[in-house]
Amino acid sequence: MFSAVRSFRAVARIIPKRSYASPAAAANTGGTEELRLTFSSPASAVYANTTVKQVDVPTLAGTIGILANHVPVIGVLKPGVVQVTESDGTVNKHFVSSGTVAMNIDGSCQVLAEEILKIEDIDESLARQELDTANRQAAEGGSEVDRAEAQIRAEVADALVKAATGQI
What we know:
Family: Belongs to the ATPase epsilon chain family.
Order of helices and strands: HHEEEEEEEEEHH
Largest sheet: 9 strands, mixed
Subcellular location: Mitochondrion inner membrane
CATH class of the largest domain: Mainly Beta
CATH superfamily of the largest domain: F0F1 ATP synthase delta/epsilon subunit, N-terminal
Low-confidence stretches: 24-31
Radius of gyration: 21 Å
Protein name: F-ATPase delta subunit
Mean pLDDT: 85
Shape: globular
Number of strands: 9
Organism: Panagrolaimus superbus
CATH topology of the largest domain: ATP Synthase, domain 1
InterPro entries: ATP_synth_F1_dsu/esu (IPR001469), ATP_synth_F1_dsu/esu_N (IPR020546), ATPsynth_dsu/esu_N (IPR036771)
């Protein structure tokens, strides 16, 4: 018992004390009320440091709506629709398969996706076929890896179908 307490105290002296984050200085944000968005994949850039009003992203923790001066955040994207409201009020929707989102203290936001597809470019019948095939492969068995890959494909195909039909 005493050795565990002694070890804990030794480690506690090494680890710096935790505290709350300090507020962003006006110099860091440039004093602007702008949200600068970079939304891209390895194949294309939809927005490149473009000023927008809002971006809504599907994450594993739920959908996040990001506005200018949003608190810093890092998240993992799940298959779904990224909705960007531009400065003039125009709304653009794109499907993403996976990726990351980061809101930075300087007012910039990066949405980096593995794949990006315009909603109007989704072929609903092909997405339904892929969903049926992936569900069948996941149920049939095979190796654990095969089932996991089929479940991932089914999740993405299900999100594609929902995006194509306006359910998400």
